[in-house]
Amino acid sequence: MVKFLPGNVFSGTALILSIVLCSCGGYHRNQSHAQVPLASIREGAVLAKTWCGSCHMVPDPSLLDSRSWEKGVLPAMGPRLGIFYYGMERYPNSLRDTNVSRNFYPSQPLVNPVQWQHILDYYTATSPDSLPGQSRPRPLDTTGLTLFTTAAPSLHYDMPVTTMVQVDSARRGVTFFDMHYRNLFHLGPSLQQDDSIHDGGSIVDIEPQDTGWIACNIGVLTPNNGKSGRLQRIRLNAKKEWELDTLSILDHLARPVQAVAADLNGDGRMDYIVCEFGNLTGALSWLENKGDGGYERHVLRAVPGAIRVYINDYNHDGLPDIWALFAQGDEGIYLFTNRGKGQFSGQAVLRFPPSYGSSSFELVDFNRDGYPDILYTCGDNADFSQVMKPYHGVYIYENDGHNQFTQRYFYPIDGCYKAIARDFDGDGVIDIATIAFFADFNHQPEEGFVYLKGLGGYDYQPYSLVAAEQGRWLTMDVGDVDRDGRPDIVLGNFSYFAPVTRRGVDFKKGPPVMVLFNRGKW
Length: 522
Prior knowledge:
By secondary structure, the chain is mainly beta. It is built from 3 helices and 31 strands.
């Protein structure tokens, strides 16, 4: 039913790397590892398929430079095979972390030292010394985007750390959370602050409901294996001000990043799908509402990296199905078909190599054939290979009507973190707004925000806004902030550890949020 696609790394970029497998059955070796025996490389390729492929999609050596393999990725992967020391090097692991079971790592090495050296040789000797640069189908226009005007709130403070933004259609305006001050703020349509509430931890997502909101609190934002996350209720009191419930809906969650409400088992009670991104461990699960204030947790997929879900009855049987994006190693988009009575069957729709750094997806019918296509971004660059990657960016995968997806578009954006598709200019063609948290701010800071104007037929003209270079945008939402009937864009500035750009912009001095008001003539 579902076709597996590797992501077509270089499709659309016209990149040909000289280090890939030759048609004659041999391998080209990079200069720094020219003396590595060919027999070791070949054996390493076989072992990589066996052992790397047991946890995630087998990555091709060409996806990273040799130093990233040697000094970053492979030492981090060694403990997964029970290898904690090799030669004179101690590999990183979390055995001292009490939040990870000691059974997480093998008690004995799964490969012997000779086999591990073969794997090292395969990846370090056949990978490039450096990755090629971007190959763009169209140049980025930094002056021609007149559709939006930018505005920032009067609320301003040093070092904003915005972890979520949302256009608030119920109260009008914008909601955002700042991790540094631990405050959830509400801005009115004119971007003036009119409400706030203090909360520990870090709220990264809120789900509107009839009686208020469900807040997804990640707990500790930085990577960890603890379970300090929780789901909380926020209500409006008699004065129409926020109140945070003292009791959580559910706590002891592993870094939850999204919670979506739906009646999944047809009992008339609202359940929740929760993305526990975690770190080394995590899960996608659903919480069954038992009707007495309690919830029973059902795990759909017990792996870390669940980052985004959508509810969509794709087979039109009246039951809500779940589409989910997983990052963090075993990356891909999975479809969980609702079989009724709380039972689901899961299938991979798309899979991606672990170096992709999957960051977001949407279901969008680009070709208007009645079937959801996939808008996907990759660009998380905070792990073990912090180099610019030519395959980071925006992808469109077209649905053939049977949930088999084929890549139709790719636009490279370093460190791309999110994309939202809408018809922003009212011409009947879908456009795409994107942000890049890990953009190359020293050389291409304009990639922090890119607007792809749809020209029809999977053809897009890319634009940027110099005014949008005032923040390092971690999060984005789209909605009608000023209720003029046109979709606006809201960006959230996360300025921790942010560099000063080549134009001298210090993100720590930037606004916590920026609104791009749509001034199109509809």
